[in-house]
Structures are given as structure tokens and as C-alpha cells.
Amino acid sequence: MSGFGRPPSTIIFSPTPPERGSFPLDHDGECKPVMQDYLACLKKAKGTNADECRILAKAYLKCRMDHNLMAQDEFRNLGFQDEGKKEAEKVGTGGSGSRLEELKRENEELKKRNARGR
Predict the structure, then answer these.
(1) Which residue, among 118, 9, 11, 19, has the nearest Cα to 78 in the 3D structure?
(2) Can you give the C-alpha Rg of the chain in angstroms?
(3) What is the pTM assigned to this prediction?
(4) What is the Cα–Cα distance from 51 to 56, expressed in whole angstroms?
(5) Which region holds residue 109: left if phi is over 0, alpha if psi is between -120 and 50, else beta?
(6) Banded pLDDT at 118 (limits 50, 70, 90)
(7) For residues 33 and 78, is the Cβ–Cβ distance under 8 A?
(8) If DSSP codes are grouped into helix, strand and coil, which group holds residue 110?
(9) pLDDT digits (tens, 9 = 90+) for 28-85
(10) N or C terminus of the chain with fewer C-beta within 10 Å?
């Protein structure tokens, strides 16, 4: 009778905190344009981890660090350890380097569009 009112095999859930702790939300929208660019990139790339989206993800994390919305950390600790190698390879291959420059220009245009939309 001690289990009266509840199922007999109830599993007790004990939550665990996130590894890196919690961080404040961006209530003032300081990093919102970069976040919107990143989400648009993910939609365009159909959810794949494309290089142009990784550049935007890195920019978003940098914005959060710059505005004290997350703790300062090195990008290699956040999963960007091979970014320097990838960019060097792209520039060294000729045609792919121009693609990277094109994506950077497109990113700047998106930022300008978002700034005008505010």
C-alpha cells in the first residue's frame, strides 16, 4: 500500500547540470543579427554542417563572448580546432578560396540587410 496513487515502477529523475553551466539569454538582441544569419545559413544548407555556416557559428559565439553573454573561451575548446587548417587548404586550392571570399561577401551583405531592417 505504500505505492498507493502512483504507478509501482516509477523512475525517479535526477537532473544533471550542463557541462559548461548556464549563460544569460540575449534579451537586448545584441547578437540577434548574427544568429539570424546563422539560422538562414543552416536553412540554406539544409541542416548540414557547411563551412560557411561554421564561420557564422564562430562569429555568433564571438559576439556572445564580446557582450559577456557567455564565458570567454578559446575556439578550439568550442569545436573549432581545425578551422585554420581548413581555411589554409581552401586558399591554397585556388578555386575554393574564391568561394570562401564569396561567402564572406554574402555574409557582409546579410549583415547590412539585417542592420537596415532594425
Answers:
(1) 19
(2) 21
(3) 0.54
(4) 9
(5) alpha
(6) low
(7) no
(8) helix
(9) 888 889 989 889 998 888 878 788 888 888 898 889 888 888 888 888 888 887 655 5
(10) N
